[in-house]
Design goal:
single chain, 398 residues, alpha+beta, four-stranded mixed sheet, 13 strands
């Protein structure tokens, strides 16, 4: 039997964190290829993007492999500057107007393409080998682990208020990290024992005490009522000063925040990053599918917690294995769930792309505050967060 009383901690990072700046740029480029491909009338199934970004003091390097519409270096630079500007970087060490941008994108390998592309009777194959995990639980309204969910929400609120220029929040900078430790009793989250927040500030004279006075009201309003008590320990800007931030303070790379992007350590991770990849890369699309299936299983009442693993081989369409773990909370046998999943949703790369409508410019919005636990939007973003498989599951599982 698993432990029922314990503490668990997860962290989040803001859109201005150097690694998240890189994730944003990489995903903006994925979106750019889909938008321009649509304008050119290209088959979206033929678009390929694997884009990696590095950012440091006044420099961004973009590298990777692509196939699709002809996009000029000037357009790629414009997209990159717009992303940096939206995040809020107008600092001497990293400014959207004068950052040096180097583009090193080249054509996708023909050896990879022949395995991935559909041809004749061959279905589209997975863009790489790998294992992907999906997870859902009843700890929050969006069926996410509470520590990560609220660590994200804190930074989302602070970013929104900072960008709106509201009150003292306007004194904060784009770079920030949060960490929340939650107490569990009888397996349920009941309160916060520790809060860590480090946020960049533009006024060098501000102290840790000043920053806490700015952020504490937002944090209290974000967390469930009663979760913060007199015993909750606060660590706000514990180094005392955080003025130099973003890529000027720390080099950033695409794909370094995979635990922040998924479940905050509450569930396994297959190891592959998401940002900068088109949906033929099962690192991304199959992880979305696994979350979608796990969330629908929990939403349908078949478990209080559910972990799903999918495995793929490069060039092959069907998953090599499907594994379901309901952690002792299931109402039907896990083997039965495993058997029906391929029938409620095709789990080939093309099947996932079709079912979740992934051939669209929907990826930049995923690059910060988590890929999961988000609200599906009108443009088709976060389609994997829908709970529209419940009827199919009930018809199959009873």
């Amino acid at each position: 039997m698993s432990r029922q009383n314990y503490l668990f901690t997860s962290e989040s990072v803001s859109e201005g964190h150097p690694d998240k700046v890189c994730d944003r740029i990489s995903d903006e480029i994925v979106d750019l290829f889909f938008r321009e491909g649509q304008k050119a009338g290209l088959d979206p199934y033929q678009i390929r993007v694997a884009c990696e970004t590095l950012a440091t003091t006044n420099r961004v390097v973009i590298a990777g492999e692509v196939r699709g519409p002809a996009i000029s270096v000037a357009a790629l630079e414009e997209t990159t500057r717009a992303a940096i500007k939206d995040i809020g970087y107008e600092q001497a060490g990293f400014h959207w107007q004068n950052v040096n941008i180097e583009v090193l994108l080249h054509a996708q390998s023909a050896d990879i393409a022949q395995g991935v592309d559909a041809s004749g009777n061959k279905d589209e194959g997975a863009g790489d080998q790998g294992i992907m995990f999906g997870y859902a639980c009843r700890e929050t309204p969006d069926l996410m682990p509470a520590p990560l969910y609220y660590a994200h929400k804190i930074l989302e609120v602070l970013a929104r208020e900072r960008k709106a220029g509201k009150g003292d929040a306007a004194k904060l900078g784009p770079d920030a990290k949060s960490q929340v430790t939650i107490k569990y009793v009888d397996g349920k989250p009941i309160g916060v024992t520790q809060i860590v927040l480090s946020t960049q500030h533009l006024d060098e004279t501000l102290t840790s005490k000043d920053i806490r006075a700015i952020v504490e009201p937002y944090i209290r309003a974000t967390l469930p009522k009663g979760w913060i008590t007199d015993e909750t320990v606060w660590h706000v800007n514990p180094t005392g000063k955080f003025v130099i931030g973003g890529p000027d303070g720390d080099c950033g790379l695409t794909g370094r925040k995979i635990i922040v992007d998924t479940y905050g350590g509450a569930a396994p991770h297959g190891g592959g990053a998401f940002s900068g990849k088109d949906p033929t890369k099962v690192d991304r699309s199959a992880a979305y599918a696994a979350r979608y299936l796990a969330k629908n299983i929990v939403a349908a009442g078949y478990a209080d917690r559910c972990t799903i693993q999918l495995a793929y081989a490069i060039g092959f369409p069907e998953p090599l294995s499907i594994y379901v773990d309901t952690h002792g909370t299931g109402t039907v046998p896990e083997e039965k769930i495993e058997a029906v999943l391929p029938h409620v949703m095709r789990l080939t790369p093309r099947g996932i792309r079709d079912h979740l409508a992934l051939n669209r410019p929907i990826y930049a919005r995923t690059s910060a505050y988590g890929h999961f636990g988000r609200t599906p939007d009108a443009d088709g973003g976060f389609s994997w967060e829908k709970t529209d498989l419940i009827d199919k599951l009930k018809a199959s599982l009873g």
